[in-house]
């Protein structure tokens, strides 16, 4: 019998947090008051960087949306400082952009 994906809320909209998560594979549900609900399925996604890239690491930013993950794989939790250090590496930088690009694409699709 194959393992069943577990569901986990990573961030609640409006809550402070200064961490990100690396998702090996799975599905992410994004919900929020100021954007349409979207689902993103993929591999090697870095989740939770949007607020970091918008505002920096001076203080734990308030989350712009709620992220819920469904995955059979464990998540790797990373501090924002670690994300910034690793983002300079080519593969890790791609992981950062993969989720953000998918979020933009699906949001644009919903709004058009």
What can you see in these coordinates?
The chain has 112 residues and is an alpha+beta fold. It contains three helices and five strands; from the N terminus they run βββαββαα. It has helices spanning 50-55, 80-86, 90-111, and strands spanning 6-11, 19-32, 35-47, 66-71, 75-79.
Beta-strand residue percentage: 35-45%
Distance between the termini: 41 Å
Low-confidence stretches: none
Give helix and strand order, one letter per element, not per position: EEEHEEHH
Largest sheet: 5 strands, antiparallel
Q: How many DSSP E strands?
A: 5
Task: Please give the share of residues in helix.
Answer: 25-40%
Mean pLDDT, to the nearest integer, reads 85
Quick one: overall form? globular
In short:
The protein has 112 residues and is α+β, with helices and mostly antiparallel strands. It has three helices and five strands; from the N terminus they run E-E-E-H-E-E-H-H.
